[in-house]
Structure formats: C-alpha cells, structure tokens
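FAQ
Q: What does a multi-component entry look like?
A: The components come first, one per line:
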Amino acid sequence: MKKQRASDEISRMIRVKVNGGERNLREGIRLSDLLADIGIPAEGTAAAVNHAVIPKQEYDRTNLAEGDEIEIIHAVGGGADGGRITGGRR
Amino acid sequence: MTDEALKIGDRTFGSRLILGTGKYASNDLMVRSLQASGTELITLALRRVDLTDRSDQSFLNHIDRKKYSLLPNTAGCFTAKDAILTCHLAREALGTSLVKLEVIGDQRTLYPNSEATLEAARILVKEGFTVLPYTLDDPVVCRKLADLGCAAVMPLAAPIGSGLGIRNPYNLQIILEDITVPVIVDAGVGTASDAAVAMELGCDGVLMNTAIACAKNPVSMAEAMRKAVEAGRLAYQSGRIPRKLYASASSPIDGVVGS
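Then the predicted structure of the entire assembly, as tokens:
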C-alpha cells in the first residue's frame, strides 16, 4: 500500500531543466509558481521556456511540462567578453 | 564650440563615451568610474541567475537608471540564434530595444563572426531592435551592417581587452567616409590618447571597458577618458593642420637680429 502511494507521488512530478540543472517539480506547476518558489524578482529578469522568451504577463498562464528547459536570466556587469548565457558552441 | 549630441536611433546622448560595466574590483568602484566618465550609456551582459547562490542579485540596484541608459549586449554568444535569444531576453528583462550585438567567432581573439553578425542584425532590425553591432574594422562588413538598418556600426580598434589602441586608423577613415550612421570604436582602447585618436579621426563615439576597469585607478582613468574623448572631438571639429614634411616658421621671418 505504501509502495503504491510512493509511485503515485512520482507520477505527479515532472522533470525539467532550470538554468541547466535538473529539477523535479510538481505536475501542473506554472512558470509564475516556479519563479516565486526560487524567489526571482520580476524587475530586471526574464525567462525563456524551450528557447522562447515568455512575456511577464504570461507567466501565470505558462504551464511547465516534462522535459521543459527553462532559462532565467538577469543583468550583470559586462563589457564585451567572456561567459555564455545558454548552450552554444564555443 | 558647441557640439551636437550623439544620436543613435531616436535617442540622443550628451556624452560620446560608452562604458562597459564588467571587470571592476567592486560595484562601488564601477559606480564612481561611471560618474567620473560622464557617460550616459552603459553596456551590460545577461547571464543565468545563479540558483544556488542568491547573495548578489543586485547588479541593477547599483545603476541609476535616470542617469544611464542601458545597452544590453550579447557578449559570449557564438551563434546568431543565441544572440537573438539574448536580445529577446534583454528586451523583456530591461524594457529596452537598444542592443549591442556581438557574435563571437573565435575564442582567442574574440573577433566577431561577420556572417553570423549580419544574419542576426538582419533579423533583429526587422523585429524592431535598435542594433549596435560589434564588428571588424572591415569597410565592406560595416557598409552591409549599415545597409541592413543598424543604428550605428562599432568597429573594433584592436582585440577586446587588448589595449593595443587604434591599429588601423586608415580602415576607420574609409569606414567614416562611407557610413552615414554613427561609427563608434568598440574595443581595443588602452589609454586616453587612443580614445583621442579615435575621436580626432572623426569617430562619433568610443566604447570601452577594460581600459578603465583594469586601470590602477579606474576612477581617475575614467576622468582621463572623458577628457580625451572631449578633446579629440573638439580637435576633429576644429580641423587639424595638414601634415608637412618640412618646417614652417611660427615667428615672423622679417627683422631677425643680425640679418
């Protein structure tokens, strides 16, 4: 009985990538929930799901699904060198 | 002599010096250097939020948005696709369509990939971005970028962070003759005289980061750069004398004692 419940629990989770790292999230979670959970302020940040930028007003209408790749970015000091934002070829 | 402001797209800037915000030893040093430089336009990068260390999430908190316009850049992008996505993220995060487009083609020199830069510029201009591309000092590429509708072209003077100065003033002169949008030297400046040379050639502005941020005293170097850009601009407007091989006396020739 206990085992059954555990597998139910697993089936209600989705596995996604957030800024390159794997995360288990509850099924039905919205982008707005994820950002709130992590503590991302709206000001000065942006998010993309599967390489498409999501406008802020659509965060709470964006449901996350198994395998989604989420990027959350912000501004940092920089001129014209170094680092990368997303996967790409060096 | 009064000078018209630097006009990029539909924006105008009182200062012709554009500053990067990277490599400073501290945010305080950056803020004081920006202040001393007199700049009104600063470039910044976009990076993933560090989800494990949320201790310094406050870069924008150090920037007075009333004083400085933001020029987000695509530094570190190696493909047109990544650069375009970065511009979209920048517009959403910072509410500006002004972008410094960089598509790097080589890790060691950080020279741009001209083909990918042109491809990204074409798309971004169509999407309504005000595009300022970092480019080689290649007159043909610069003309193509301008023809695509870029709001300025930003040829390098030397590799990013190299401090080698204006390595090919003749190419810059050809670009300046050919291009009607602002020409801004982006990268390679090492010290104040380099900035002055760029402005004396007739460039519309200079963008720099390392030369100030990595100077022994960034705040006073920022002041030196402000003065150099102003002096170079004024000299350009004043019209320098032609270069001559032989002397031309400054004192009257008649009435010299003993003649």
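Q: Is there any commentary attached?
A: Sometimes. For this entry: The interface with chain B takes residues 18-21, 38-41, 43-48, 51, 53-56, 71-86, 88-90 of chain A (CB under 8 Å).
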